[in-house]
## 1
Amino acid sequence: MPEPPAFASQFVSVPHRDHTAELGMWLFIATEVLLFGGLLLAYFVYRHAFPQSFAEGSRHTDILIGTINTAILLTSSFLVAWAVEVFSPATVRIVTWLLVGAACLGLVFIALKGIEYSGEYDERLVPGVDFQFGGPLANGVQLFFIFYFVATAIHAVHMLIGICLLLVLAIIGRRAPTTRHHAALHSAALYWHFVDVVWIFLFALIYLPGRASS
Amino acid sequence: MTEWRPPLALVGAWLALLGLLALTVTLAYVPLGAGNAVVALSIGTIKAVLVAAIFMELRKRHGLTLVFAAAGLFWLGILLWLGLMDFMTRT
């Protein structure tokens, strides 16, 4: 079987192909920014309208799990950036383990998120399923938790997609670490880091407010 | 022996991110009034810039790539600016 060319006919070189892929990835990330941007806008509008309720809702989230999960995501991003940096035929083994490690950290994140969700279910804080909250702040707290579940669930779906990407790249990169695989890994890494950045802001908006007051 | 060690910039960024995480959680418990939200979002922005510059390699890029990367923020700015203007200024 003939070897496929390293780049398609619309490109003049491998760097040209990789640069185009990178621009395409950033364009995709721009659409993702706007997806989460709509959620952010809703958050700010309702936080502005119900400041005390949002602080109260925030105090009912699990800041310990939130903080651990943030550290986990930052670390997995570090592993992926490391893999992209040292990718070469000579480093196949370490790159594979870095990617598998990053994917495993992603799975730990999802597992902790599940524990957190189940805690919130036990506390009857799930709007639309079982939401019981007394007092005058109940409506605003419910809005907070609607944002919380929608935003973190959309984020978790992104995590799952990213975990699959990392594992697939770990497997195919192991077989033949070519420049094409490096370009694919680079695109997947940009996506993974973006999901990390989204979480950095979700963490600041969901877990941190209202901690200093009661 | 091939070079498999992570560049110092990556390790530095990772440690800085974990340090900023510890800082932002600590400061969240210090009563600063409206300042708490400003601190949380400012530290979050610094963390995002670190990820974008070091992990996403934007510090090594120029020209068109930076324009594409900034485009999302530009549109986000328009969305939040026009979207929030009414709510923030309504009396």
## 2
Amino acid sequence: MIARTGGWIAAALLALAIGIFPYLGDLLDTRFPTSYELRLVMRAMILGIVVIGLNILVGFAGLVSLGQAALMGLGAHAAALLALRADWPFAACLAASVLVPALMGAVLAFPTVRVRALYLTVITIAFGFVFVNVLREWVSFTGGASGLASIPRPTLFGERLMATRAAGFNYYYLIAVCLMLALWVQWALARSRYGRAMRATAESENAARALGINVTATRTLAFAISAGLAGLGGGLFANLALFVNYETFTFSASIELLLMTILGGSGTLAGPVVGTAVLFAASQALQGLQEWQTFAYGALLALVLFLMPEGIVGGLARLRAKLAGRGAQERQTGAWPHFVPGFDALTQDRDEPGQATLITRDLTLRFGGLTAVNMVDMEVRSGTVHALIGPNGAGKSSLLNVVSGFYRASAGTVTLFGQAVKDQPPHVLARLGVARSFQNTELFGRMTVLENVLVGCHIRYQATLAETLLRLPRFLREERERLAEARLLLEVVGLTDFAGEQARNLPFGHQRRLEIARALALRPKLLLLDEPAAGLTHGEIEDLVALIRGLAARGMTVILVEHHVEMIMAVSDRVTVLDHGEVIADGPPEQVQDDRAVIEAYFGHGAPAAQATVPAQ
Amino acid sequence: MEAILQYLLTGLSVGSVYAMVGLGFYVMWSAAKAVNFNFGDIVMLGAVLTVVLMDVGVPLLPACLGAVAAAALLAAAIERGFVRPFNREANAIGWMLTTIAVGTMIESATTALFGSNPRRLETPLVEAPLRIGGSGIYPQELLLPVALLVVAVGLEFFYRRTITGRAMRAVAYNRTAAGLVGIDADRMTLLSFGLAGLLGALSGVLIGPVIQASATMGAIIGLKGFLVAIIAGIANARGVVIAGVLYGVSEKFIEAYLSTAARDAIGFSLMVLLLLLFPQGLFGKAEFKKV
């Protein structure tokens, strides 16, 4: 809470400082700032806007662009060319300077990020290179090295925009307003499902997909927004300098922008402003280095990455947390499952009783020559707990991964909730009501416990991006409701006191609880648990059994991959046994326990049935 | 007809460089699932260091060998110092930033020390062009495809027949499992970056006489090599070789029939389009992401 108020105070102070800067001379009775200093501050504010965009990309979505200067140049040239060649009014030019790069960003991002985040970086380098190349060579259109000069001075509502006293420094204040808007966008994104989805995809792509997040779309959106802000900076720059050419938008300018982002603290809200201010000031000094200036940028970037990877703001925040941590209060781990009154409302989405929630027919999955799942027919009734067991390598997890859409079946059909779903990606299945946990817990480690659960609520937001950024009523209502839900789910798993803790700092057992709470936030009709008891203590397993039975009692269907036989006997309604990818037994637990084939699968041929039912620990 | 032969040969020549650089990216990626982003600088150093060594009186061949060895060592050192510490988590992006930082330092330091003007790298193979019909081509340019062939076959042999090569493949396939059977995965990664550096620096030495040595020569070659590797499907060596050569040849035809100025714009747009159509690359198999 303190941090939040602090943020608002800092933003207000920044606005105040920027606001009085042009009139500083009147207060101090000196000739300062001159038009030169005013211009420097305007350029710094413009860079700040671009760096905020880059921070959304690097700090939130975990993607790196090395063509950000070129995207800024694209915005600058769009604005300049439309003003020069098409006589567009300033406002329209500025809008184009946002939209053209944003569109270009989407075009560059979509083909690349769906394969590998890394590819985007390579393509942005290529884009930057081609952009400069085109500007230099296409002289008739862009003026080549002599650039586009004599861009008409911008006017808005009949006012000529200038940074002079006579004009009331109106262009200066326009840039300042744009900077504040960019900060607002960054803040509004960060505290919304969009920002959380971006950070989630950066932390764990698999977990994000399992929670219904379209990873490609999220990354494309992040880059489009980032490119749009770069373009806005470019458009403002073109109308400030009234001249553009390619020399401003080279690869080394992109590196400088990246350095500002990292130096300030990527992923923090204040980082872009701090990083831009510090580096911009330093670069005025570094200009004396001439040919070694670029070297200094490289060295500085390396230095920051080694010594304070979280940047100035991130480093300070850590320091403060350390100091505050000394007086931290005891945190109580609650008993779980704690089915609080509101919980029933969260589990109302269920498949109709008696239906087959999941049916697989002849389901087969091959990896090259290895058949991991072989002609599996399986039927799971709604509201039951269905265990999937078998020796190591029997294909249990593979089957789970096919059902949740992570692996593509080689043959056969999957029917979920009465709907054929073959080859649907995980995020689509999640939207149908399938949630899952992972064998190796996949939390969003750098997000807080509460944020992890909120990501689970992602698909149940209706508010659009515009509503979110403008903080319209629907967004506010939804956010309030989801927050209440998330807190309730944390209470159910007994983690209320840990809500503000980073997920990676939780002890292992708590991480398992959190992963389940996050999956429940999806309000699944079918919950897939992949070895949820692995690594848990005896007491924790008993709690887990109680939770699973409680969920089934509320109509949720649960499929459980597990080794822990005692637990399976206690919790399941039905058991399917796999061996070498094939179903070797299927039935109620007591029956499967005595099945000859099952015993042989676990112990080999000739195991005396009298001695060994499947071991109960 | 002769013109077409000329484009084919020069295209083959420049394409061989892209392919060799692309192979460097392939080798790095296989081992580390990370690369030296400014690998082009290793290419550049191969050529520039040769010139520097020859300046101080070292004869051509020892100078080439010395330059390649030094650049490869540097490539390995970059892995140890700048990639490994920043590639510990699954989704790490730190190594991108650090290798970009170190690449920027190398390139700007070279510009400052070596000068910003390109320098000739004299070899006997660029003294007189061979006449093919009306046009000429340097023997040096013809050396490049030969070198590519040797490098590609050598790499295949190394990966399949030597114990170190096999260990590298094991690491590429499954790092943890390779560790469990006693392979020092970190050491293999270091060696892989050194090996990639060898390929990169060699291609720099070989192309240097044709395009002249300069501090900035590596950036574009490195970028194209990377794109070629991506388009091929980064985990497929043969695909990288084919894609590299094809890209080189198409460049020459674009230059000849469309526009020299727009060559890279067209080439890169083509790459983006290909990636749109073939997300896994032209020769890559649909990737299996383990969950």
